[in-house]
Amino acid sequence: MQITLITGFLGAGKTTFLKRILREQGPSVRFGVIVNDLSELEVDGELIRLGHSVSEEDGTLISLYHGSISDTRRRDFGRALRQMQEAGVSHVLVETSGGSRPGEVIEELKSCGGAVLHAVACLVDARAWCTTTMGPRAAAHPVGERRHRSPHH
Fold first, then answer.
1. Do residues 1 and 85 lie in contact, with contact meaning Cβ atoms separated by under 8 Å?
2. Largest Cα–Cα distance in the chain?
């Protein structure tokens, strides 16, 4: 079973990215999804559940909320991976919570026999990154919008 890990800080666009993958999948692809949310509210799981090709009923959606799969929900994550295997899912998309530590999630993946890490996608909010690393003026003018002035103007 192949695993694609989707990680990044809160607000980086992980759920939007995951929804796009599910929306654009071909008819021959059958993904399973494990979505993790730190909060007591199941926000991301509910967003994935609405209008996509995965569901709890057919064993292709597992939502783990109220804790991180790299910490308090780590054992539950291991069980979820085994459930996906039992359901015959060949490729699982794992969306971590913004507070998860990807290294520890990967360690748990390694302990699940038959699971192979296919890819890791780490998403970044470019505007927040620019503000943090280069200051607010850099974020106000995204790279594609910057105008270069010649020294003579």
1. yes
2. 68
pLDDT in tens, 115-142: 999 999 999 988 777 777 777 666 566 5
- Mean pLDDT over all residues of the chain? 81
Residue 129 to residues 14, 63, 125, 147: CA-CA distances in angstroms?
A: 16, 28, 6, 20
H, E, C per residue of 76-136: HHHHHHHHHHHCCCCEEEEECCCCCCHHHHHHHHHCCCCCEEEEEEEECCHHHHHHHHHCH
111 touches 78 (CB < 8 A): yes
Q: Tell me the per-residue pLDDT of 23-38, one tens digit each, with 9 for 90 and over.
A: 887 667 778 999 998 6
Chain center to CA of 87: 21
Q: Which phi and psi angles does 14 have, rounded to 5°? A: -60, -50
The answer for 73, left when phi > 0, alpha when psi is -120 to 50, beta otherwise, is alpha
